[in-house]
Amino acid sequence: IVIAGAGFFTDAYDLFSISLLTKLLGRIYYQDNPFTIGNTVDPGRLPIEVDSAVSAVALVGTLVGQIIFGHLGDRMGRKNVYGIVLVIMVFCAFAQ
Prior knowledge:
The protein is mainly alpha-helical and 96 residues long. The protein contains three helices and two strands; from the N terminus they run αββαα. α1 packs antiparallel against α2. It is elongated.
């Protein structure tokens, strides 16, 4: 149960952190370029197109990863592939 919970946590963490990442990107790169919604000026916010693109890339990456690693899990065994995925995620988390 702990291993299944850890897998769910890592998937949920990735998708949850994208919304935080888009807010951070807006504050870093769009501080001087205010985004306007109607009459409201909101500095530090990503334009809708950029926000949607970042979120879409995260969802497409999740889908592609599920297809690829699901297929590998059927061929190599789920425990082996889960270990590989876990190592990849830990490495990427520390690399960023």
